[in-house]
Amino acid sequence: MQNFMVKSIGKVNVRENGMFIKLEPKYIPALQALNGFSHLNVIWWFSDFDNEETRNVFETQQPYKKAPEIMGIFATRSPVRPNPLALTAVQIINIDYESGVIQIAYIDANDNSPVLDIKPYTPSLDRVETPGVPEWCCHWPKSLEESENFDWEQEFNF
C-alpha cells in the first residue's frame, strides 16, 4: 500500500455572514486568473471523520430512504470512508485576491475543515449531459441550482 503526503492549502470558514475559503498566505498567488469562473470544485478533508474506526467502514445500512438496505461506502457521499476526501462544487460570490479569501454560496463542510485543493469548474470537463443514476435517487435535483430548493431532509435516514 502506498502513502501520500497531502498538505492543506487553507480552511473552510463558516460564519454568520457567509461561507468562505481562507487560503494560507503562500497560496494566494495561485488565485491569479480565477476571475470569470462562476464555480469551483473544492477538494477538502472530512477531518471530523478521520480516525481508524471510520476509515474501516466499507458498508452502511440504508443512508437514503429509497436506497438499497445495504450500500457499499463508495455508493454514498458519506464522510465515513477509507480516505475522508470530499469534493464539492461551489458557487463563487467574491474573491479577495489580496487576503486570499473566497466567499462561496454554500459548502457541506464544517468550520475549519481543511481545504486540499481548488479547481475551476469547467463544463467541458466537469459536466455530464445525461448522467445515469439508480432508480432510488433519480428524483433528486438535476443541478446544484435545483438542489437549493429541494427538501433533502426527506431523503436521509439520519
Task: Identify the notable features of this structure and list them briefly.
single chain, 158 residues, mainly beta, Elongation Factor Tu (Ef-tu), domain 3, six-stranded antiparallel beta barrel, two-stranded antiparallel sheet, 8 strands, globular, methyltransferase activity, SAM-dependent methyltransferase
Short description:
Keywords: Methyltransferase, S-adenosyl-L-methionine, Transferase. The chain contains 2 helices and 8 strands, in the order ββββββββαα. The chain is mostly beta strands.
Number of strand segments: 8
Number of helices: 2
Rg is: 17 Å
Hey, roughly how much beta strand do the residues contain?
25-35%
The CATH architecture assignment turns out to be: Beta Barrel
Catalogue the unreliable spans.
none
Distance between the first and last residues' Cα: 33 Å
Relevant CATH superfamily: YaeB-like
- Specify the structural class: mainly beta
The domain tally reads 1
